[in-house]
Amino acid sequence: MKTSIRNHLISQSLLLLLSYTTCTPKAIEILLPGQSLNGDQRITSPGGIFELGFFTPGNSQNHYIGIWYKNLPNQTVVWVANRDQPVSDPISSTFLLHKNGNLTLNSPSTVAIWSTNSTSQVRNSTIAMLLDDGNFVIRDASAVLWQSFDHPTNTWLPGARLGYNKLTKQILSITPWRNPQYPAPGPFSFELEQTSLRLLWNSSETYWTSGNWTGKTFSHLQDIEEKHVPSIFSFVVNETGSYLSYAVRASAYPDPFIRNHTFIRYMIETTGQMKFFVMENGSLQWNLLWMDPMERCDVYASCGAFSICNPRNLPRCGCLKGFEPKFHKDWELEDHSNGCGRKTSFHCSGEGNSAFLVMKNVTYPKSPDSLVVDNIDKCRLTCLRNCSCTAFAYDNQCLIWGGNLFNVKQLSSDGMIGKVWYLRVAASEKEIIDSTAGNTKRKTTWIVIGVLAGIFTLFSIVLVVVRRRQSVRALKSFEHSLVLFNYRDLKKATENFSEKLGEGAFGSVFKGILPNSTPIAVKQLKSLLQGEKQFQAEVRTLGAIQHINLLRLRGFCADSTRRLLVYDYMPNGSLQSVLVQNHPLILDWNARYHIAIGIARGLAYLHEDCRDCIIHCDIKPENILLDEEYNPKVGDFGLAKLIGRHHSRVLTSMRGTVGYLAPEWFTGEAITPKADVFSYGKLLFEVISGRRNSEGLDDGLENYTPNQVANAVTKGQDVLTLVDYRLGGNADKDELIRACKVACWCIQDVEKDRPTMRQVVQILEGALDVGIPPIPQFLQYLSGSLTEAINYREPTSSSEIIFLS
Ligand SMILES: *[C@@H]1O[C@H](CO)[C@@H](O)[C@H](O)[C@H]1NC(C)=O
Ligand SMILES: *[C@@H]1O[C@H](CO)[C@@H](O)[C@H](O)[C@H]1NC(C)=O
Ligand SMILES: *[C@@H]1O[C@H](CO)[C@@H](O)[C@H](O)[C@H]1NC(C)=O
Ligand SMILES: *[C@@H]1O[C@H](CO)[C@@H](O)[C@H](O)[C@H]1NC(C)=O
Ligand SMILES: *[C@@H]1O[C@H](CO)[C@@H](O)[C@H](O)[C@H]1NC(C)=O
Ligand SMILES: *[C@@H]1O[C@H](CO)[C@@H](O)[C@H](O)[C@H]1NC(C)=O
Ligand SMILES: *[C@@H]1O[C@H](CO)[C@@H](O)[C@H](O)[C@H]1NC(C)=O
Ligand SMILES: *[C@@H]1O[C@H](CO)[C@@H](O)[C@H](O)[C@H]1NC(C)=O
Ligand SMILES: *[C@@H]1O[C@H](CO)[C@@H](O)[C@H](O)[C@H]1NC(C)=O
Ligand SMILES: *[C@@H]1O[C@H](CO)[C@@H](O)[C@H](O)[C@H]1NC(C)=O
Ligand SMILES: *[C@@H]1O[C@H](CO)[C@@H](O)[C@H](O)[C@H]1NC(C)=O
């Protein structure tokens, strides 16, 4: 009677296929003069890859003409015509090719709200069609009159241009959507500036640049010491003198990695971050391979005016005290382009109408004007007397900000004290804030704070300068991507291995800082089973594996007696450290779900997309690391192989792992990627409940989370009560039910019944549905047999359990 998840998934995909073949409206390939498109009619590219028609983004009520990949279950829109002029009714609107070559979008029926303005010399000779590279072209017998590739929106596809045309003075840049429901251009842009690419805010402030790329060849595995883009560009300086860059078609690109991917796209996110996605042949899943800036708060004006960006918080954006989002609806959709506005406005004529709030532990806003005045009091008066002044600071000179304040970033509270500055608000607003904060300090204290802060900053500047002076030695680059470190440098970087971050099965991890101030994590491997050559070969394979949810290997060190691996340093530690009950930060449900999907994506990549399938074998919260943005990164992958050929022996002697091991580790059956799926399921229970599964086991099976969840899911009971009590029941119910079901499917006894990691990703994303999982048998054994229970219990930190092979 047990319905296997596989059957269920097969019937799902059959349904999908059926719905494609029966419900798809008749596709048009070419639009002829006088012909139009409306309602659910579509233009399809000859190879059936792309499709053009009306679409509705997210929960919006509005309709837009767009281009998307035809056969992906999740619509990925790559181009939009009427970005900021939606139509409300696609039935009465027409997308019409005129006989003179002009193509217009008319709503309702007559008024043109968007047009290409293309004209043909020969009347009634134009056609419009969608090509297989996603380019929508209007051409007549002799030339291309207009093409969507010359009017990019938020996506850059292989074959499309980016650049500056000296003749038309036109900049071809890409701009993000305002929010997931509104494709109008946001405040950011990605464009070519002569020989480098850059990201800009308001077409004026550069917040990221690629550097000079002339004459370079680009690969996604570029030297990691340099900031780079995993790239498929080649630069062409047009004979007419304009700089144009062409994204080379995948097939023409020499890198075999790129050739293996069906779809490639660059996209600028509404957050102002640039992302590079690839999709492997046959998979229906986008993999995020690269993103810059990594941290959202590093984007210029990332949260809009009068906001504060906190890299250790989700959501990132908040308003300064005394301010609130200008448009709450947009703000909730993570559209911060309008920023925050004053809760209470004030007339600036009288000096008593406004007052200052002290801002601490945050950075200065961007672009102050500086004046020379004697003291902080005069600086304050200067600000008070200037109607456009919104903030001031005194730092040996008087800094005055006028108009909107941008780029205020929260500093971490651990030791780093930011500069103090003063925010101008209505006097009545300050009273409210002070009274709610119980702040009754006298007016004079801020002077003291200001002076102290000044002294402190001076001191820190001296420190930084001294540090910079220290020798910066070039590191040997190895195989384009990995750095070969020598032991002396690593010893120095880690201050003689003094700051231990953790201890794992393969060795201890220490924090270090490279001469260029990049923090690193250095893993000292315990075992030397492999020779230097073989070790290097394996490390090279690992170094080539890059995914946003996998911990990046920066380099290594190997000599006769030592083996060390150098990784990116992850400021937020491991998932385990964040899940413990006394951690000051409580991850909300969104963050947890984001982490669960991220880990699944990373594992799916390891299992299916690498050259050799890699089974992680040791998935547990300690091996999931969190970057500044709380993106999960799977660590320690591939190490079992590095240590030696008999890695199963090493693995089964690992500590702290037993609670996550699949039954096949005990029965001696072959280990497949499904063993990781099992461990992932166990981990997912802990992410949901916020406690170790083993904690509940001490009080009997009733408190064992997997058992509780399995029971609740099977009986259709409310699972909200099983979520971490610290969330106070705040969780998205659909997501929670999906997570619970997936976790139960993952821990099925028979590996064939478990989903693949790829399917897990799809289920969590809501792209696939699954049925009710049966209760795994081992849970039933658990209730009966104490010996089995011990196998699933966490061993204490010092004991090592060795299983017989
Ligand atoms: C699928 O669509 C949903 C909702 O729009 C989105 O949240 C999710 O990220 C998408 N998945 C992929 C793989 O793009
Ligand atoms: C076409 O011309 C109209 C009016 O001259 C202009 O508003 C519109 O932006 C143009 N469309 C394009 C796609 O350039
Ligand atoms: C194209 O059509 C639009 C809307 O009718 C019009 O404003 C524009 O002038 C036309 N462009 C040309 C070149 O005919
Ligand atoms: C215009 O071209 C279309 C298709 O090519 C044709 O069916 C139609 O008769 C032509 N109209 C005129 C007035 O030439
Ligand atoms: C955006 O840039 C324009 C000029 O490039 C400038 O006039 C305008 O003030 C800028 N907007 C903001 C909010 O800074
Ligand atoms: C970029 O580098 C090339 C070759 O290294 C050099 O000739 C060129 O002047 C540089 N361009 C800029 C804008 O720095
Ligand atoms: C160079 O620019 C001219 C004018 O914009 C254009 O017609 C031509 O196709 C361009 N050549 C290349 C190789 O892009
Ligand atoms: C490309 O795919 C083929 C077939 O799946 C595989 O054998 C080859 O190793 C892949 N190449 C790379 C660089 O991933
Ligand atoms: C993947 O797809 C691309 C483009 O369709 C094709 O050129 C390539 O040969 C395919 N690779 C494999 C390994 O199937
Ligand atoms: C007021 O402050 C703004 C912003 O610093 C500055 O540009 C302007 O010149 C000041 N006005 C006067 C009258 O000082
Ligand atoms: C600022 O950071 C210090 C620690 O450096 C902390 O004691 C203080 O409470 C923080 N202040 C605010 C307002 O967060």
From TrEMBL:
Residues 1-23 form the signal peptide. Coiled coil: none annotated. Residues 348-426 form the Apple domain. It is found in: Cell membrane. GO terms for molecular function: ATP binding; carbohydrate binding; protein serine kinase activity; protein serine/threonine kinase activity. Its main location: membrane. It is a single-pass type I membrane protein. GO terms for biological process: recognition of pollen. The keyword Membrane applies. Pfam families: B_lectin, PAN_2, Pkinase, S_locus_glycop. ATP binds at residue 523. It comes from the Eukaryota. It catalyses: L-threonyl-[protein] + ATP = O-phospho-L-threonyl-[protein] + ADP + H(+); L-seryl-[protein] + ATP = O-phospho-L-seryl-[protein] + ADP + H(+). This is Receptor-like serine/threonine-protein kinase. It comes from Rosa chinensis (China rose).
